[in-house]
User: Fold these one by one.
Assistant:
Number 1:
Amino acid sequence: MFETVLVANRGEIARRIIRTVQRMGLKAVAVHSEADAKLPYVREADESVAIGPAAPAQSYRDVEALLEAARQTGAKAVHPGYGFLAEDAAFARRVQKAGLVWVGPSPEAIEAMGDKIRARNLVAEAGVPVSRGTTRPVGDVEEAVRSAHDIGYPVMVKASAGGGGMGMAVAGDEGALRVELERVRGFAQRMFGDPSVLLERFFPRVRHVEVQVLGLADGRVVALGERDCSVQRRNQKVAEETPSPAVTPELREQLFAAAVRAAEAVGYRNAGTVECLLDADSGEVVFLEMNTRLQVEHPITEMVTGIDLVEQQLLVAAGRPVTFDPDAVPAAGHALELRVNAEDPVRFLPGPGLITAWEEPHGPGIRVDAGYTVGNTVTPHYDSLMAKLVVHGADRAEALDRARAAVAAFRVEGPKCNLPFFAELLVHPEFVSGDYDTGIVARMRV
Amino acid sequence: MAMEVRAEMVANVWKVVVAQGDSVADGDTLVILESMKMEIPVLAEGDGTVAAMHVSEGDVVQEGDVIAVIE
């Protein structure tokens, strides 16, 4: 097995990966931009390399700088985390070409799933249910109007290369479609360098339910549980839970089977997530996309299964068997994740700044994956995630109780912080009932 | 009466949507800021005419900086 792993990421996820690498008796190399030199993950790594200025294009997305850092430190494997180059097939190829182990799926699998239209057609062929939508990028506006007419309004206008809730908009009628199409195209060109847009049926009341899968070294694909990610603002998740209160044992069986089929369709190895939409009214499930990386919210799956997903990723990448029995995946209790962001709790506008106080909650079932600590500065260069508060309980009620206490005990001063939003969410009748959908945050703010 | 529209956070000016002299209505997007991987539209808080635009695309604004003046 490789002895040294370069973690090509920053903040909480770099720190979390470093922790497992070291627990396995391996050495962890951190890379950091000028803006991140003082963050905990840099200090905790066995070695760290400054790779460039704050701008991601010149640091965390700079392939040459990352490969040079690996060469300098003798790292033999690269873990990309999430975001940045995690789903960049060209980077995965470069890593492999440099003779290093890529801790992730094959570049081919990344490519197949990275193009949303191709991914949907591919999984549909494998027998996975998909929603009505265009089967190729829409050409001009008139073609989009005809397609939308066939799909039926409202439609979702989505950048093919998008992700993380960016580059999508809902159009309720033809007029709105003409406006949104241009807007999403412009955004996609600028953000992803690819203006392709697709149209999909838009479900007004949906839950976002995803399945954690793991493709083993021997070729088998296992489903490790679902996560409900329906608490979203700006189409981005802020709180997740597992198991999903909306998923019955029968539905779970269907979901897992569909997720495994989707992953098998691309010969998937390593950790990945199959995202689905669950129509809250009909119980119908459709494939949304597959994220070919470790997900931000992976810790809740770890809390209920007791499986360290990063450890499995490293073992699979090394061609080794996993630490658990793939035919009997354990599942115990209920887990929640709350994304503690540097943003205000009312309008969710970001507010970076110097952290003047930072006290994490402790206790049974509490895990905090933090990227920062007191004295660090949250800068505007990267996303607003400061920490993930992860809570486990014997059942949902206990998990909620522990989460309320943990939120009350978590003290962050300096940057804006959305902890007060979670205090509200955790006593909100709709959330407490478990019967909520992706509109919950908007309804809380009416 | 002149209304100053100010930045609510440190951000990059991604897009300037209106220009000096344009008439705008309550809720119209004036500029789109970008911070922490988020797009944040800055909206007109009333009807009027754009008397001055104080930012250009690519600028960095600090919290409290004046972005535009609406009359």
Number 2:
Amino acid sequence: MLFSSTTFLFVFLSLILVCYYAVPRMFKNAVLLVFSLVFYAWGEPVYVFLMLASIAVAYITGLLCGRDREKSKVPLISVISAIVWNIGLLLFFKYTNFFIDNLNSIFDMKITPLGLTLPIGISFYSFQTLSYVIDVYRGKVKPQRNFLNLATYVTLFPQLIAGPIVRYQTIEEQLSGRKETLDKFARGVRRFAIGLGKKVILANNIGALFEEISNTPQSELSVASSWLGIIAFTFQIYFDFSGYSDMAIGLGRMFGFEFLENFNYPYISDSITDFWRRWHISLSTWFRDYVYIPLGGNRKGKLRQCVNIMVVWFLTGFWHGASWNFMIWGVYFGIILLCEKLFLLKALGKLPAAIRHIYALLFIVIGWGIFAFDDTSKLIQNFKNMFGLGGLPFWGGKYDLYWIAGSWKLLVILVIASVPLFMHLGKKLTVKLPAVYGCVIEPVTTAALLIVSTAYLAGSSFNPFLYFRF
Amino acid sequence: MENKSSKIANIITSAVFIVFVMGFALALIIKGDREFSEMENRTLAQKPEVSWKNIKEGTFSTDLESYISDQLFAKDELVTLKTDLDFMLGKSYQNGVYLIEDSGLRYVQKYEENRTQIAENVGCLNDFAQSLSVPADLILVPNVSAFTLDKLPAGAVCDDQKQSIDYVGSILSERISFYPMTEALSESYGNWYYRTDHHWTAFGARRAMERYLLSSGQIQSTDEMPGIEYVRAGEDFYGTLYSKAPVSQAVSDTFYYGDNVGVQEIEWVNEGKISDSILDKSFLDKKDKYASFFGGNFAQIRIKTGHEGGRALVLKDSYANSAVQQLFTRYSEIVMVDLRYYHMQEKDVSELVSDYGIDRVIMLYNMDFLNEDRNFVWLS
């Protein structure tokens, strides 16, 4: 089920809110678990059992990892089994067909691809259960003896299908000892409304422009419209994904949970290093803590650090999907980050802020140019077009004027929404006019966001979720 | 720790959300389901059956989703809000229509010329005409986009129908007399076309038929046109193009129809229905007012006009539904054939021509139809 659907809002959410707040404390997690399983099983029921198996594996290996590492080999064997299970699942469900296709085309073999659909959210929940078992092994958290609590953690519907990757250690105590408060609920509502608006009003709208441009025949494009298309995608993916994270964080709060932030205005970054501290934070920190640091991080010399960085970024790219462009995208950022680490950041530091922002944005947008097309020939064609090698005029494609005229207002809104302007404004108003802001402006904005989002849901069949395939 | 005002603020915000979620949920249960949406012109999804089989096969979830979205409380108003906002944001093209400023808002259907299809369709008409021994006329009606090209938004893509009509003229067989209506409808086109519907008005239809009858020599002066008394339907008319992009700035149309068009007998041949009126007045109170002419489009309609004259066969699209009444005083019998529905019938159209003793074949089409429709092949 998607958050941005009328079924979710008016059936699922209304029911779970009633049930959750009607039952006594001891049943609250059970309510969450049951609803989360329905949420997951919606439309594709079989893979629920796969997820339950994953939870069972995490539960057992977690318990076994809790034993004394000095005295027994059981914890080591358990953590390795958990890693093998989770990575095995990912490889099997997500990457088998990719390997088969490539073997077929490189060695001219004729292996039949598996008829598998990707289990929704598998990339997220396998990383989560993995972080749990590893953290138990490392002694950072205690093993969860209550199966219900562990199952609630893994299946928790707000973050189940598109993240953020909530780590067990973040909500360990909340699982049994959280308190739902009015303040949390209200903050959750605000956050959810903002997320819904980002996704439904902004991302879908600008996404339609990207879709339109990328489906326009080559001869009717121009250099300018190729850039417009990629800029549209740049906004779409940010508002889509961060909107989803906002909704997850907001929903979590409504049920008493506090998740960590996943985005922090990534497009105001002044370097790529900065960007990756602000974009999909739960993923980059996951790779840092569970891949980069175990590989030795920066503790084993410059050369080894460079290798580690490249490994991590190759994997980060590959995590996004079983397709070459995601790997290229990961390696692309690996190289830039490496350069920044070695010399570029120092050099950039001497330049004016504006230049640093332009530099960062340019490379971010180019990155999305790689990310946006999993069809390699389309990807190459698009880059040729963007850099004037596609034989296109700079300006004057068939629809150029129309696209600009029809989207410049939206683009202005998107730019404003990408910078922390409203956040600062809100903070100022909270101090200066607390009553008016809290009792009038915020509720009215929230209501408006909810109603307008519903209007867009009602009026548009265009509602694809970008982060679904991961 | 919370001070009082922030507590009140939290209560208000939470209440807003609860009312929003629960309100829509309760409205779904309370308000009762609609069978049909006039706005969308389609039947709506109904409550899905809860059964283990449906749930297992996953049809329950998709059915429930379409039920919820179809039966959403205040859906038409919400859709209008969405298109309003889109329009405000500068989307003057939505769902295949342009929203233009033309002393008030006007909907214009985007036209993209498809020469291959036009050539194919005209080829079918040509071949058909070759086989005829009676005169054949083609009345070709431009859509309103032909006259509003200069009013379209910057960068809009919309081909010029005048060129398409010229093209039709250039490839049309000499067996068919050509009556393009570009010139007749160009001046004060605002009277001849609806603002919110893709059809022409009763007056546009009359003007074009008058021009046709005069130029083909079937009448000598406009005095010979039938005396029709036009009355307006009670409510405002919001047509098909409005439904594609309902904005609140839309200017409603007034729907006029000829009230005193009597016929001796009219027969919907395949349906076996017989009546003495070409109007189905039940549609005048509904949204789709244009369907009050004959109740919509049908494969074959036979009209005994009760007047003296020959027999005409009219090959038509929906534009003809409001126009054909202008021919009643000139013919004793008119047979209307709509090739979209006249498929695999007992007799093909040529056989109808000879069986009914037809004296003249009149083809009446709008340019958009000739550009897109794929049913002309049924002529052969």
